[in-house]
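ugh ok fine here u go
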Amino acid sequence: MLTPQTRLNAAKDILDRLGWVPPRRAERVDEEDVPIEEMTLAQLHEAAAGRKGVRLDLSSLRSLAADEL
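structure:
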């Protein structure tokens, strides 16, 4: 019986013989942190959704948006 490790090694050997090179990882580009007072409404919505690691509740977002107007 072939173990999963044996199959993996065989697949790696075949790809090496074919000259296949895996794609490089994309470099991570971090956007500069913008103070919350300078964020646009779209950035505030994105932050409120938790996509940037910042969590705002809806009432705080509304208050900040009202200050922007």
